[in-house]
Amino acid sequence: IKISKSYKLASRDFHPEDTVINIGDVKIGGGELVVMGGPCAVESPQQIDEIAALVKAAGGQVLRGGAFKPRTGPYSFQGIGVEGLVMMAEAGKKHGLLTITEVMTPEYVDVCAEYADILQVGTRNMQNFDLLRKLGTVNKPVLLKRGFSATYDEFLNAAEYILAGGNPNVMLCERGIRTFETYTRNTLDLSAIPVLQNLSHLPVISDPSHGTGRRELVEPMTKASVAAGADGLIIEMHTDPDNSMTGDGVQSLFPDQFAALLRDLEKLAPLV
Ligand code: PEP
Ligand code: MN
């Protein structure tokens, strides 16, 4: 049966070949596996520099870290803002890593694009259409996270907003969806990986950290994501997870776990 789709540019019908996003000498999509690692939030120059060195030494290609944090409560730590962008850009440059950071509002897109190599749209903003439209006009790749209650159709339509604005470099990120289960923070929808690759030509990245919310599940769900065909991973890692400034320490790997996981991945799939 032919299903009519409301999105076009994101569809594989429209663009049969895999999209490959080239950033410096890193390729995202088209068969290679990219690993993005780092803390939930940028906390200080020392913290991000130390973690960048560990991501690089483990074989990661991209440093992740939030300077603007979308917190459930208004009294929680909200991120250190533009200063954090500067700290992360310096750490990335020093250690030879690309950087990815979350942008929450259209007004901050330009400054985030100035300092980071990849712009992340968080799950809570997947249907922030003004933000998506603005990201369509920038010359930086975007990692779009799936809304925690979004269908594949809604997710691909959100990607369509960015593509339709003229930015062809969009990655889709499965980061877990809300289900009846509360043992895990979210339910990582592994099916999303092959489904999205079937429906779309865009690279698909898995986030086993937010997808589970539990450190001990990050390793098996990373490997499961690779087995399911993910084009890349975004994984939280912290040198002192118990004292991290967001609640995401509980899902952050210790540096030695991160390094061991990447060694195992080399056996499953060649890293970029
Ligand atoms: C994050 O990457 O730290 C984050 C807030 O992710 P999400 O939008 O998936 O919750
Ligand atoms: Mn986080």
From TrEMBL:
Keywords: Transferase. Its EC number is 2.5.1.54. This is 3-deoxy-7-phosphoheptulonate synthase. It is an enzyme of class 2 (transferase). One of its GO terms (molecular function) is 3-deoxy-7-phosphoheptulonate synthase activity. It comes from the Bacteria. It comes from Paenibacillus haidiansis. Residues 20-265 form the DAHP synthetase I/KDSA domain.
